[in-house]
Design goal:
Length: 475
């Protein structure tokens, strides 16, 4: 009995020295997170959303007609409501990416740190914020912007998409001007460039180049000014400049493709339309993109949008599907060269379109580690001065090169259209279920119910909340 009393007294002494509220703290879910951690998490969430092929989150490798489905074909037929794919993507971009970036910047500014490093950190956050909004505006059109990310306003208004786009260019210019290359930023917490501010400045200018090209038909004057400014500021000059998010070999930090295609054990995806195009030119990149079809020495693509037997067609290459560390390319030198080729063709720069076109293909071959470039470039339909009736060489090569980024590949088609790059109509189009290949996401279902008035105004402003409603940069 004495022993029990002694133990109880000891416990009471310890307990009296401990605040009761401390016992209720969940140390695994801290209420305060360092700015650097928030920033790193935002980068990973951004990369995961781009890289993933989980049909609950990302359908763009399908809509770019790089891959199609084997059994469940809803997503290849543009059915995105059943899995609330738009809702899921909206949440990732606003909640996981933009909100983490905002909170990271808020903590840095509240710290009172006025060092060059802190200033640079804020500029990197601003650049990635602009990148994220650029993606969202070109995916949905009008979106919440000036009233977004305010936890006290759960029904934000939607802003005009082109107005947002113009403002993003202004914000990028300001961020670029504020960068001090003599100082660092996030160091190893920057999972893309390791805090290298020269690299971030180049990334920002390359993003401006991309945005200028996007505006080519919507606002040629602003497009040219933006492109000229980007080129003068310095854009990517080699594959070494690529914005790559490199994954780790152990979950949960592996590439989502490894999770979706290998760890899942599923057999959901095969090559499709792009395989036929690649075969037209015996393109050496086929081996980097796909396997031979089983029991053959041929690259065979399934028919887009229908149920295809997995054993009958080419699968995603092992170097992509089976490598947990395979990187997500957020913005690339290859893209840069094709944008510069287009800028020259449109007369926005004094560059030589053919030279940039050739460098784009060369950069793509180098990135994928394949040979045979000279023979490939000499072919009719590839050589810049040759003709290929009914198709556009610049569109085709841009599409091939974007294989590692489905959204970019789909956007190549959205900008150039079927007249330049013919995509297959799946059964959903043929039977009238959908009017055509989508050019945007419809708004999330929860926005239609929880933010109904602003949603309705936004839908009316863009011409209707349809998959086929052309956004400002496509008109």
């Amino acid at each position: 009995m004495k022993k029990i009393l002694i133990i109880l007294m000891a416990f009471m002494v310890v307990a009296s020295c401990t605040k009761l509220e401390d016992l209720n703290k969940n140390v695994k879910n801290p209420t305060e997170v360092p700015a650097t951690t928030l920033f790193s998490n935002a980068q990973k969430d951004l990369a995961d959303q781009i890289a993933s092929t989980n049909v609950n989150m990302n359908v763009f490798k399908l809509w770019a007609q790089y891959w199609t489905e084997t059994t469940y074909t809803d997503e290849a037929n543009y059915m995105i409501v059943n899995r609330t794919i738009s809702d899921n993507a909206w949440e990732v971009w606003y909640q996981d990416v933009l909100m983490n970036l905002k909170e990271s910047k808020t903590l840095i500014e509240a710290s009172g740190d006025n060092s060059l490093q802190a200033v640079n950190q804020c500029q990197v956050i601003e650049i990635l914020t602009c990148y994220s909004y650029e993606r969202m505006v070109t995916l949905w059109g009008n979106i919440p912007y000036t009233e977004a990310l305010d936890i006290n306003n759960v029904t934000p208004k939607y802003d005009d998409a082109k107005t947002i786009y113009t403002d993003l260019i202004t914000r990028l210019n300001a961020a670029i001007a504020a960068i001090d290359e003599s100082s660092g930023s996030f160091g190893t917490d920057d999972l893309i460039y390791g805090g290298d501010m020269a690299a971030w400045k180049m990334f920002a200018n390359t993003l401006k180049l991309k945005m200028g090209i996007t505006l080519s038909t919507a606002d040629p004057g602003l497009a040219q000014a933006t492109i000229e400014s980007a080129v003068m500021g310095g854009v990517f000059t080699s594959n070494a400049d690529n914005a790559n998010f490199v994954y780790q070999s152990v979950t949960p930090n592996t590439n989502p493709l490894y999770v979706d295609l290998t760890l899942s054990g599923r057999q959901d995806f095969i090559g499709t339309t792009v395989v036929d195009y690649l075969n037209d030119f015996n393109d050496p990149r086929r081996s980097a993109f796909f396997t031979y079809a089983p029991d053959t020495e041929e690259y065979l693509g399934g028919v887009y949008g229908i149920s295809n037997p997995y054993v009958g067609f080419s699968h995603v290459a092992d170097a992509i599907a089976g490598d947990p560390t395979f990187s997500c390319t957020i913005l690339s030198y290859t893209e840069t060269q094709f944008y510069l080729a287009e800028a020259a063709e449109r007369g926005f720069t004094n560059g030589v379109a053919e030279e940039h076109y050739n460098k784009g293909i060369e950069a793509s071959f180098e990135f994928w580690g394949v040979g045979g470039l000279d023979d490939y470039m000499a072919q009719d339909g590839v050589d810049y001065n040759s003709t290929w009736v009914g198709n556009n060489k610049l569109a085709m090569q841009s599409w091939f090169a974007a294989y590692n980024n489905g959204y970019t590949g789909w956007t190549v088609w959205r900008r150039w259209g079927n007249e330049s790059l013919h995509f297959v109509d799946p059964p959903s189009v043929e039977d009238g279920t959908f009017a055509g290949i989508p050019v945007r996401f419809t708004y999330p279902v929860f926005e239609q119910t929880l933010n109904a008035e602003n949603y309705q105004q936004a839908a009316a402003a863009i011409g209707g909340d349809l998959l086929t409603t052309k956004l400002f940069f496509l008109e």
